[in-house]
Amino acid sequence: MTVLTAEETRLDGLTLRWHAVCHVDELEVAWGEAALVEGEQVALFKVSATEVYAAAQRDPATGSCVMARGILGSKGWRRTIASPLHKQVYDLATGECYTDPGLSLPVFPVRIEDGVVSIGLPAVSAVEAAA
Asked: What pTM was estimated for this model as a whole?
């Protein structure tokens, strides 16, 4: 895969750096895949031909990196992922945990352009990185 130049955008007051991860055709519908992006373990979920979600690979309840093996589902029209370990159910758009309000799953914005799936990760400044 050709790695594209990361570009930055602002979303809700946060600077995001976009990273090309894979081609959308490399993902299977209803199946999770793990990727390492800038040192961050990310789980990608293709729920339809044009709909992909990204979340942290680390399970908030256990700390294990297993979320790509979770069970995709829905709560009404909301897409969800259930942890493969203890079955906590998370909203893939917001990260909210429906089964344990004390937990939340970090989620990342996704865009698909020219068949390439990119995710937006928070940009870290040189000052923050040195700290």
From this structure: 0.87
